Amino acid sequence: KPSNLMLTPEGTIKLLDLGLALDRERQAAAHQQLTRTGQALGTIDFVAPEQLEDPSRVDARADIYSLGATMFALLSGTAPWDHRHYASPAKQVADVLGGERPSLKNRRASSDDRLDSLVERMLHRDPRQRPESLADVIPQL
Question: What are the tens digits of pLDDT across the range 57-67?
Answer without folding.
Answer: 899 999 999 99
